[in-house]
Structure formats: structure tokens, C-alpha cells
What does this fold into?
Amino acid sequence: MRALALVKLGLAATTVACAGTAITPSAGTDLDLESAGPSRESQPAPLLWKVRAPGGKTSFLLGTIHVGVAATELSPAVWNALDASELFIMEADVAAASEQATSRGRPALEVLDRGDWQHLVELVGAERARALATVTVDRLYGAVLQALYPRVEVSMDLALAGAADSRGLQPRFLEDWRWQIELGQRYFDDGEVSEVLDPEGAGRRELDELVASYRRGDIESLARMALDPRAIAESPTRYRELFFDRNRAWSERLEPWLDEHPCFVAVGVGHLPGKRGLLELLRQRGFAAERVR
It folds into this structure.
């Protein structure tokens, strides 16, 4: 799987920061989602697991997608789980990332060729494309995502954080958002933006497949996409740093919180499956994990 798609599966703060104002709220936006609920296109089974601690506390673990699917599409089971929780735990403070992160990417004019710009004009219109000519390529990518998935006005992770705050849940973060953004920038491949702009590009197809699999609640398909053995063999350091090392650190950090409180944990769905995934690591620590149907 390409680096950009991996980032969408595994780095919440990086995605929000790249988006800038594209999929983050403007000033005054209400994120409490009081009217949020499942749309008619809600997934048939949420990517939600019930996690029971050895001492009996019950928590919930939601696999999120950082692009392409709105929080309002989530199943009622997700909102019920949020209502039943005391702590809200996510990868990093995405609200801080959206407000404070600065762009460090190359200028879009240095990255895109004539064909890329034509695809951009077709996607967003000539006037918007001219405005985007002055931004960095990571900000351009956020604008492209907004154009590809216009229903997603606020990223799922940011919307869930707002909903948790409105319910009075105490926030906890698994890692620092600044560190996560630095990690994402290490693997952000400027050239892959061209493949997302191209309607026939491999990057566009991967993102569309990723979003469709998430909407179906198809964890098997998502696992195949995120954890392709050939891709892991070709880029072992990338997968270790983006997924496996972080999964292990998160399982250690989660253990005392899950032991002591009913928690709602929201992390990228790519972190959940596999022998080195978060679900299996929690089971090894004595937790029972069962998918909510």
C-alpha cells in the first residue's frame, strides 16, 4: 500500500494537520454532534469492539478512518458506547494539531506537472486551482480530499473528540501530536499526490477502496490493504514505525486506563488487525475483545 494510504489508516493528527482548513472546523463550528446519528448509508457493522478488562471494566475500541467517511455515518452502537464511557482515548490531540500545526511541505508548483494541474482544475475548478497553486503540497492534498469526499466537513477523529467533550468525557492521548506529525512527514510522499489527482491513478483507486471497505465494515479487506506481507517485506522499517512499534506502546499505555475506567478508544483501523495489531496485543494482556454486531 502506498505511503499516503497508510497515513490515512494510521496517523490521525497528520491527516488533520495536512487538511488545514479543508476538513477541520472553522471558528464557531459546533462539534458536539448532538444531532449526529447514522445516515441511511451507515455501515452494516461498525468497526467497534467491546473490550473487557480482567477486573470486569467494559470499554469500547473503535477503528476510525482519517479521511472519506463522516462521523455522522457511524452506527448508533458507536454513540451508545460513547455515552457509556468515562474516558475518551485517541491517538493524539487532533484539535491541537488542527489549530497549531504548521505546513512544512514543498510548494505545490514544484511537485505537480502539467497533467496534474489539469486534473486539479477538473476536480476543483480553475479559480480554486489558481488559489491552491500557492500552497504547500500537504495543504493541497487536504483540499483534494475535501473535493473527493465533500460530505466530510469535519474529520471523523475530530468530530468524535468534539462529541466526547460535549458529553463530559475526560480526554487521554496515546502520543504527542507533534511527534505524530513528524512521523507522518517522514513518510509523506509528495509524488503520490499525483496518483490521487489522477482519476485513473493507483492512489485514487486505493483511497476509494479504503473508504468503500470501511463503509462496508469489512475488517478483512482493510487488514489485507494495511498489512500486505509483500509491502511489509519491501518496507519493514516503515511498517514497524507506523504500526507495530506504536501498537505495542499503545497496548502498554492503555492497560491501566482500561483496568480502571470504562473507556472509549478511537484509533486508526489499520492498527487493529493482525498478530501485531492492537486487538491481539490487548488479548495477550488478559483483555477480552469481541466485535459489536
In short: The first strand starts at residue 48 and ends at 52. Residues 236-260 form the longest helix (25 residues). The radius of gyration is 18 Å. Residues 61 and 286 are 15 Å apart (CA to CA).
